[in-house]
Amino acid sequence: MSLRRLALLAFCVLLAACSKVNQENYQKLSAGMAKTEVESLLGKPTDCSGALGMSSCTWGDKNSFISVQYAGDKVLMFSGQGLK
What we know:
Blueprint: H1 3-17, H2 23-26, H3 35-42, E1 47-51, E2 54-60, E3 65-71, E4 74-81
Antiparallel strand pairs: 1-2, 2-3, 3-4
């Protein structure tokens, strides 16, 4: 294996280990948190949608994600799947 491939592999492993979509950050979420607090904890969401003052944002992918539902800019409820 070339040194370049080994370095790329090491970088990918490190990047995956640094994901903000994890059990530790999920446990820091609470109802009533401001949207800005959630985004400072989890980063920019992967996807958001909403209407009439309600919105839902998701971080992660189909295997490991955190989903947060907002009323206005405050957390109403949240859920997660596949978190480590």
